[in-house]
């Protein structure tokens, strides 16, 4: 039974996962080597909870109780938990190093879950000391709101690990969907044409991104592809496109967009940088 969750990485996803876990009565350790990121995460969570209080969706007492369940840590020796969820930089060697480091300070049954959106969970797992205790636990942004969690199994993952990750997702009021490790898992594989075809229309001069967003939102999509890429972050979205493209043998239909590549090079990442396809 999971009582304590250690979330590694205090960025947007990590802090969102940590807040969600604390809201559902888990004790949470939010770990980051960068003290500034921890302070920023604390401020963001306090602001999010205060907003819920102002909307009468949460009492001030409940908000305080949620924050009291979160421990902010900069020392890996403090990362003692039943479940470790990493949401750090998308570099497999760094994720592997983190899991192996934390396996030395934790008990023998701790489960390691990676929030990677497109890296091979199998490649990560096979380099971790106990690969049977590694799975994917892919949340979607914003983690406090989006219900879906992809639970990714590798050939090494045992059933107990899958059960723990799945049950924890349910306890966090999420909808877990089990899938086998594959490029882009389910959502990021299926969603590639939504972004890439829209980008191609702009590249070819057929129309502009605002028109595409307006038409797709009018036809029932909650967010057009360009607004959605700005929300996700062009750096993350472009990296996923590149990873899926490479992993599937570089088919022409999935070739990453030069428009998005240029956005990333200019630092026009979307909401988090203040400018992407739109200004914020």
UniProtKB/TrEMBL annotation:
Gene3D superfamilies: 1.10.1040.50, NAD(P)-binding Rossmann-like Domain (3.40.50.720). InterPro entries: 3-OHacyl-CoA_DH (IPR022694), 3-OHacyl-CoA_DH_NAD-bd (IPR006176), 3HC_DH_C (IPR006108), 6-PGluconate_DH-like_C_sf (IPR008927), NAD(P)-bd_dom_sf (IPR036291). Residues 184-280 form the 3-hydroxyacyl-CoA dehydrogenase C-terminal domain. Pfam families: 3HCDH, 3HCDH_N. The keyword Oxidoreductase applies. The keyword Oxidoreductase applies. Keywords: Oxidoreductase. Residues 4-181 form the 3-hydroxyacyl-CoA dehydrogenase NAD binding domain. This is 3-hydroxybutyryl-CoA dehydrogenase.
């Amino acid at each position: 039974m999971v009582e304590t969750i250690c979330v590694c990485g205090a960025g947007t996803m990590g802090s969102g996962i940590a807040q969600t876990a604390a809201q559902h009565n888990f004790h949470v350790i939010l770990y980051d080597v960068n003290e500034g990121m921890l302070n920023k995460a604390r401020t963001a969570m306090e602001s999010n909870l205060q907003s819920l209080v102002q909307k009468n969706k949460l009492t001030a007492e409940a908000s305080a109780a949620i924050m009291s369940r979160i421990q902010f840590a900069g020392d890996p020796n403090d990362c003692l938990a039943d479940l470790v969820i990493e949401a750090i930089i998308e570099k497999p060697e760094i994720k592997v190093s983190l899991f192996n480091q934390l396996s030395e300070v934790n008990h023998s049954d701790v489960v390691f879950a990676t929030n990677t959106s497109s890296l091979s969970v199998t490649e990560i797992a096979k380099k971790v000391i106990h690969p049977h205790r590694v799975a994917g636990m892919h949340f979607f942004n914003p983690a406090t709101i989006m219900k879906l969690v992809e639970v990714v199994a590798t050939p090494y993952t045992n059933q107990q690990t899958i059960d723990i990750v799945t049950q924890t997702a349910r306890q966090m009021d999420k909808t877990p969907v089990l899938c086998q490790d594959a490029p882009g898992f389910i959502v990021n594989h299926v969603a590639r044409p939504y972004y890439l075809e829209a980008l191609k229309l702009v590249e070819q001069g057929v129309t502009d991104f605002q028109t595409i967003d307006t038409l797709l939102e009018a036809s029932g999509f909650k967010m057009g592809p360009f607004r959605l890429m700005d929300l996700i972050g062009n750096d993350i979205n472009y990296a996923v496109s590149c990873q899926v493209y490479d992993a599937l043998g570089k088919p022409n239909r999935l070739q990453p967009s030069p428009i998005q590549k240029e956005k990333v090079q200019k630092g026009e990442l979307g909401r988090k940088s203040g400018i992407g396809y739109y200004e914020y």
